[in-house]
Amino acid sequence: FFHRNLFTRKQSARFEKQNDVGWKLFGKVPLRENSQKDPKKIQKEYEEKTGRAHRPLSPKQNVRKNLDFEPLSTTALILEDRPANLPAKPAEEAQKHRQQYEEMVVQAKKRELKEAQKRKKQLEERCKLEDSIGSAVLTWNNEILPNWETMCCSRKVRELWWQGIPPSVRGKVWSLAIGNELNITHELYDICLARAKEKWRSLSTGGAEVECEDAGFSAADREASLELIKLDISRTFPSLCIFQQGGPYHDTLHSILGAYTCYRPDVGYVQGMSFIAAVLILNLDTADAFIAFSNLLNKPCQMAFFRVDHGLMLTYFAAFEVFFEENLPKLFAHFKKNNLTPDIYLIDWIFTLYSKSLPLDLACRVWDVFCRDGEEFLFRTALGILKLFEDILTKMDFIHIAQFLTKLPEDLPSEEFFTSIAAIQMQSRNKKWAQV
């Protein structure tokens, strides 16, 4: 009897617990009974039992609720009441916090307005630039290119050239400006490429040496050149990811560099060539890029550097220093004091025609004027860079100058950059670059 009574008490207690509103909140009652009660009533009953009845918002909370603008940050917490276990804010402090919060809101609105105006200005500038490019494209296509021989040296064309050639016609203009003194044809490119592929197969299979045109050049030299091409391609514009293994232009770049080593085995492949070929590939068809590449490297300055003609390279450095001292005497003296010679920074710039050192769009603009003015503009550009950063460089020592010039800032403003180049005078004691 005792055991039965005890069991009955436990069972009835369990049922009472199940009928408790708290259990209903967690869905511990039969579906039929649960569906008869409105959720709002259950919530009200629960709040009455637990003593958490809904309290109206305080005036301060209402103020926050009615604000038109509230920044999405923790700044709004300044208006919160203190926890119940702490003394309430004094009226003066509450008013001060309210003023601070309103000031934050005003500042946030000002920042938003400023950002909106900045975005609007950028959009207007972009539209203006696109319109000017569109107009320039029509001028180049309809007036200049059809009459190239008669118009290329006119003042109007030279001024338009300085502003930058539109990307859609850049390849055509470069091809015409570089020329084809070597008379290379598309068929010659195919022959050189076929020879290069044959050599690659021969070297990869360890076959017999290729004779004739490579007389005097050992298999080890050719293999080293081939390996250097592979290595350099992977380091060419790595951020673009288009020349690396698996990229859309990997094979094209490999083909042009390989074909050139067959066309000029006396020069072979030299580090830096991959950047020049890559820029041409981005603007020209493959065969035309090879023609421009071969003719470009045949220019006196490029040939001196790529064949490592020390005597001629020193002559170029000496000429550069004449114009350096003429244009930037203070910086020239600082470089002399720190024993910083031109070869430390100029070699990399000349080898890659600035395509490795400058942002790609800026490098292409340098190429535009280089195609117009020739090697002189390469050294004028170097002086323009030194002039642009003269104030910074005069405060640096040897190590920091070398590091800075090896890796130039990536956010170079193009207009300031070309204004700096334009300020350089390429005349010393009534002598021009070629005469010096």
Report on this structure.
With 436 residues, the chain is mainly α. Among the domains are: 141-170, no CATH class; 179-204 and 217-298, Helicase, Ruva Protein, domain 3 (Orthogonal Bundle), CATH 1.10.8; 304-435, Cyclin A, domain 1 (Orthogonal Bundle), CATH 1.10.472.80. Helices cover 67% and strands 1% of the residues. The chain has 23 helices and 2 strands. It has helices spanning 2-19, 21-25, 31-36, 39-50, 59-66, 91-144, 148-151, 155-162, 167-178, 186-205, 219-234, 250-263, 273-281, 286-297, 300-306, 310-327, 329-337, 343-351, 360-373, 375-388, 390-393, 398-406, 414-422, and strands at residues 427-428, 431-432. The chain has a two-stranded antiparallel ribbon with strand order 1-2. A hairpin with a 2-residue loop joins strand 1 and strand 2 (431-432). Helix 16 (310-327) crosses helix 17. The radius of gyration is 37 Å and the shape is elongated. It starts with a helix and ends with a strand. The relative contact order is 0.05. Mean pLDDT is 82; it is low at 15-30, 63-71 and 208-215.
SS class: mainly alpha
Helical stretch tally: 23
The residue fraction in helices comes out at 55-70%
**SSE string, helices as H and strands as E:** HHHHHHHHHHHHHHHHHHHHHHHEE
Global morphology: elongated
Question: Which fold name is given in CATH as the topology of the domain at 304-435?
Answer: Cyclin A, domain 1
| CATH superfamily (homologous) name of the domain at 304-435 | Ypt/Rab-GAP domain of gyp1p, domain 3
Low-confidence stretches: 15-30, 63-71, 208-215
**Architecture of the domain at 304-435, according to CATH?**
Orthogonal Bundle
Q: Largest beta sheet: what is the strand line-up?
A: 1-2
Largest sheet: 2 strands, antiparallel
